[in-house]
Amino acid sequence: METILPRTSRVVALVWPALLLVAAWQLWIVAAGVPAIVAPSPAAVLIELGHDPLLYAHAAAWTAGVALAGLVLGSALGIALAVAIWLTPFAAGAMTFPALLVQSTPLVATLPVIARVLGYGEQTVVAAAVLITFLPTFVLVGAGLRTPPPGADGVFAALGAGRGARLFLLALPAAVPNMLVAIRIAAANSFLAALIAEYLIGQVGLGRLFADAQSQFLTSRSWAASLVATALSVGAYAAARRFERYGRRFTN
Predict the structure, then answer these.
(1) Which of 134, 127, 99, 100 is nearest to 196 (CA)?
(2) Which DSSP category does 147 fall into?
(3) Quick count: other Cβ atoms within 10 Å of Cβ 176?
(4) Whose CA is closest to 82, among 141, 130, 165, 136?
(5) How far is Cα 239 from Cα 184, in angstroms, rounded to an integer?
(6) Cβ–Cβ under 8 Å, residues 82 and 142
(7) CA angle at residue 200 from 196 to 204, to 5 degrees?
(8) Tens of each residue's pLDDT in the chain, 252 residues
(9) Among 232, 237, 185, which Cα is nearest to 206's?
(10) Is 118 helix (H, G, I), strand (E, B) or coil?
(11) How deeply is 12 buried, as exposed, middle or buried, from its count of CB atoms within 10 A (0-12, 13-18, 19+)?
């Protein structure tokens, strides 16, 4: 009984904000007399979701796969660049400025350039997710590589450890907590990037479903796609946060 109550309280703490938001949504629709073509009611969105659940499940699975690929590849790219700078500090200027330039440029501006290089296909959507997700890993892992435990660097130097041994036995383990934080930050952003790219140039996925629904004035469908996308983003953040907590058990 004692273990059930805390779990129930955690579930209630997670659910009540969503229920409050839905209630406010319904109240706004009724009080303001909002037309269905502008904003549907929660019931209309639920009916739309139940009308063709496989449509949304397929689109959600595709977007989740693209976002996961972008997260994995973006994290790998960020770690590789951070390690390269740690090994060769002279590369910091050559890599940091282009990375910041890519991140400071709006995605809608860089997508046409990426599409011209990679083609108007799903590889461009994945590339967009990679561009959004690699910077947190690059910055945080780079900071972790440069901050080993106090005194550890001196011990390795006294033992005559080489550059490779310091990297694999000291710097990379010290960067693991920062890497976990970077994954948590980038998890939801990868979905955002995938949705934007699908909306603009994609052929499938929730972003494409939302764009098609908007062009056909299917308001309930567009809102249903947005609701599924929001649930996926929140779920990705929650999963990344749980992964971070699990990983910290082995780093503390």
Answers:
(1) 127
(2) -
(3) 15
(4) 141
(5) 8
(6) yes
(7) 85
(8) 445 545 666 656 667 787 888 889 889 888 888 888 888 999 899 999 999 999 999 999 999 999 999 999 999 999 999 999 998 877 777 777 788 788 788 888 888 888 888 888 889 999 999 998 998 999 999 999 988 888 887 788 788 878 888 888 889 999 999 999 999 999 989 999 999 999 999 899 999 999 999 999 999 999 999 999 999 999 999 999 999 999 888 776
(9) 232
(10) helix
(11) exposed
Q: Tell me how far apart the alpha carbons of residues 1 and 122 are, in angstroms, rounded to a whole number.
A: 49
DSSP-H helix ranges across the chain = 4-32, 42-51, 53-87, 91-104, 107-118, 122-145, 152-158, 163-166, 172-201, 206-215, 219-248
In which residue are the tokens 């779920």 written?
A: 235
Evaluate whether the domain defined by 38-248 bears CATH number 1.10.3720.10: yes
CA pair distance 234, 79, nearest whole angstrom: 25
Among residues 34, 94, 53, 106, the alpha carbon closest in space to that of 228 is found at: 53
Q: What is the pTM of this model?
A: 0.86
Tokens coding 121:
């296909």
* SS3 call for 95: helix
